[in-house]
Description:
Elements: E1 2-6, E2 12-17, E3 23-30, H1 44-51, H2 61-69, E4 74-79, E5 84-91, H3 95-108, H4 113-131, H5 134-146, H6 160-165, H7 168-178, E6 184-190, H8 194-201, E7 227-232, E8 238-246, H9 254-266, H10 271-279, E9 283-292, E10 297-305, H11 310-326, H12 331-348, H13 352-366, H14 372-381, H15 384-394, E11 400-406, H16 414-417
Parallel strand pairs: 2-6, 7-11
Antiparallel strand pairs: 1-2, 3-5, 3-6, 4-5, 8-10, 8-11, 9-10
Helix pairs in contact: 1-7, 9-12, 9-15, 10-11, 11-15, 12-14
Amino acid sequence: MYQVSRLKNGLVVATASMPHMASVSLGLWVGVGGRYEPAEANGVSHFIEHMLFKGTRKRTAREISRAIEGIGGYLNAFTGEESTCFYSKARHDRFPELFEVLMDMFHDSSFARAEIEKERGVIKEEVAMYLDQPQQHVQELLNETLWPNHPLGRPLTGTIKSIDRLRRGQLLDFQKQNYTSASTLIVAAGRLRHEKVLAAVRPCASRFLQGKRPRFQPAQDEQTKPRFRIVSKPTTQTQMALGLRICSRHDERRFALRILNTLLGENMSSRLFQVLREDTGIAYAIHSGLSFFDDAGVMVVSAGLDADKLTPALKLILKEMKQFKERLPGRKEMGEARDYLIGQIDLSLESTESQMMWLGDQLLGFGKIFPPVEIKQHLADVTAQDVRHVAREFFTSERLNLAVISPAKKSTGLAKILRF
């Protein structure tokens, strides 16, 4: 199903053949994101992502969108900590149009000064929008707390100040240095043949700039005690995000952590959902999730609740986490968590877009593709003892970080609560 070719200039082309599908999804991935940015250029990756939609030498911004939407498709992009992706989807026979438009955007974006100034205002409005959304804002506060004075602790959008500082030359220099053949993937999934995708790529392969894959600042691991940060805002609800530093995506313990996270708070069957919502009614929204990076990772528990419920909620969350250190999860609970994760993998790979995302994530993150059956086998092999082991290793006081946005003006007693 999966085929990968590396061209002489280092450009990688990968495909997932899905002959039963009507569509094709195409992604242009660059292995650079927010954590590659110097502090003075915070937000430059996201700014460049926006600018590739704002016009080329032969298309205006409107003509770019019409070129894809006019054939029944769609076009989008995102910027992450370690990658940026431009992607499109349409009926399979429209692959040539998708490819041509993405190549035009990637190689011939004009970065017109007037468009840069307009987009600067748009991005500042995006930053303001996130600041007005406590659920989003609290995650950024948590990142600052987890990774102080480090690129992982800075917002991917940049700040109002950093966006105001960025100039056209900085955008172009960053793009030239990082958007190279060695850091770029062309990924397609759907009703297609690998040979035809290669035939489309080869004529324009020489247009990709030569250069090494960029490097990032290593993650810091200097925390010795719990850290917390509270921001007072006139919100109706208190938003909290509790984060614990964990291992990187290359660590074999990640599979046990995925089981642990599912048991803890990933779905409605999880312990946190049952205790905080079903049993006590303390919170409406309660969830845990994992983020893995090349050299670090984080588990985050998020909740929205009344300000006077913050202390009891934190006590219950930490109590449930301690249970994993003290007692083995039962056989039935383990089996249900495994089946949930394995089922989610199958469901998540049903579309051409999700297969394209799978390939891009795997190749940029690991340099190879792990077949889904291999991932599912790793999850099936996780034991209750493995879960307890990672809980004992990562559920420790010196890994705890808390961010809170609340109408309350004080953080009375949080320092005493934040410990195992």
